[in-house]
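Why does this matter for the project? Reviewers at the last site visit asked to see concrete outputs rather than summary tables. In response, this paragraph embeds two records directly. Each consists of the residue sequence and, immediately after it, the corresponding structure tokens. Nothing has been edited or filtered.
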Amino acid sequence: MLRSTKGTIEVEEISAATYAEFLLKHEHILKDEVTMLSYKAAIEANAELFHQATVLEVGCGSGVLSLWAAQQGAAKVIAVESSAVCQVARQLVRHNRMEHVIEVIQENVQQLQLPPVDIIISKWMGSALEAVIYARDKWLKPGGCIFPHQANLYMVAADQPREQQSLPDYWTRYSGLDLRLAWRIMQQTPVIDCLDAAQVITQWQLLRRFDLSTLSSHELSFTVPFKLRALRQSLAKWFVLYFDFRFPKLKPITTSPSAPPTQWKQALFHIDAHLPLCIRDVVKGTFQVKRAVRHLDFDIDWSFSNELVQVQMHKQIYRMQAGPDAV
């Protein structure tokens, strides 16, 4: 990046490691046109809110959302990113001649002192959620906006493609070794993947609504009941979570298996018991989330009975680790 210092121009080099981190963590985000263009549409549809506003982007990554906010006439944009990827954001800001509007800061939000802001924008549906809540309570002006401002969390059950084995050979026997213990541990880790809509075998269940204007940090751990009614006959292999999120003036954007794929895909929780569903059968139970600093614990307690099988209340425990930059 070119930087002016006492009338001279010098080049700020970005290391190969930083570019590698950028490609590893952010290339797939930029390729997610469903999400990125939805943010762009939301900023443009609400241009009157961004005009002459002070905007804070939490977890800016490449800084694209900040650039779009500046294009809509924001007076000041503060782009915060905890990782070294912020160097890439600074370059993009410079190349787009927006350095007079956008300030890129490498730091955790909780460590900063910032002025009051009119708008907070973030892809907060993940590890940035607590940081956004902190920023809202600390700096968002009364009547200010958060983009997106709402989200809903859903659950369904799904089967497994017939060609996919439930226990690959290398877990039962690999050069004379028995690795089934490792396989069982793997089943306690949610899988982040795109499910085929044809695999969904139950109606969806709304688990939780999130309103960013009122949501508090202690509400990020919760327990809710669920009832999943079967739409067709099949063997259930996964509990599946997905969500939608909403901006003012736009229709919801969903990460459902029936919608175009996004960077978030879906979260798949392996069912470790035999669960043959017939039409109108119901799987019921409770879904619990316990949020820690660098991981999420999930408890799914469920029961089921029909003419084929009876399962008393059955507990499954899962853990999802956060990345090293999670806040």
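We now turn to the second protein, recorded in exactly the same manner.
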Amino acid sequence: MDKSKKLKVLVVGDEWVHTKDLIHIAQDVLQGYDYELDSFDVIMDKPMSRDRSDDIGDDTVTEYCGHPQQLIDRIAGVQVLIVHTAPVTKQVIAAGKDLLAIGCCRSDAVNINIEAASARGIYFFNAPGRSVEPVSDLTIAFALLLGRNILKADQYVKAGRWAADINRDVPVWDEFVTFRGITFKNKKFGLVGLGKIGKRVAEKAKGIGLQVLVYDPFAKEEAFAGYTRITSLEELFTVCDFISIHVPPLPSNKGLISRKLFSLMKPTAYFINIARGEIIDENALIETLQQKKIAGAALDVYYTEPLPQESPLTSLDNVILTPHLAGQRKDLSEGSADILREMMQPFFQSNCLDTCFNKDKIK
């Protein structure tokens, strides 16, 4: 980048990653440059729903907040665009005739049309790994909660049933014994996906004594060191005591976890999904849980978000439900901004493309 040329910068934040933190990124990344900066906030309007009714003219852009017209109205003359969930569609990129670089504070930047940016020779930077620790933590927490029946036991105590059962003339242990959980040592923990998050989950699962089995046809052989590589989803679902999903929300992964796979699970097995709701056949999982064909499940993501109150999932006692919070952390805004800063600085300060996401697609 030529520091002698004045740049125009547009920063778009939201309630999760604040505009002020994104402005700090721009200030740090563009040290030594002459630039003017414009900014605004978008409203976070259910960014994780797969059933949005609005048509923004670009089906490749998903999980966004706001409307592309908000960017189009301000993009003229902008060379550097920094966003979190704002939708950077092909129309935004077409309107941004002077765009040189786009930064997005997400790992899976599904709100950016990266192909359109690459075709225009626009460098794109993301924030890889920002969710690795919180997502992997919740995955292991789910396994522990499920395997030890912790939530059911908690409800038993809070409802006073423990005291009532023990204080009878002849104590009643019938419900109490149902809380007896499994031991985790040498249980088979099956991972679908061995990306950054999958690798960290594998490390933590192995750390509590679980045998880790992994299905990922795209991972390099060295990534499986210390784990058992499984070459088919059918085998993984058949032999494992836990199944945990960690693949990206690509169109090719929609419906990857099918009714057939659920039917192969052991009746004592547990299913965990912290990836995306559309990756699984949700109706098939609901039927599997209703019929008690597996021991239980824990879900942080759903096909429709927020999860409708009328969903059968909300009435089941063998599933744990959380509101798509796996990637949330108390320092989400500052932490995400820090990662994006690290990714963008080499390009702007040293003309280095090593951290550029689409460097191989720009000629």
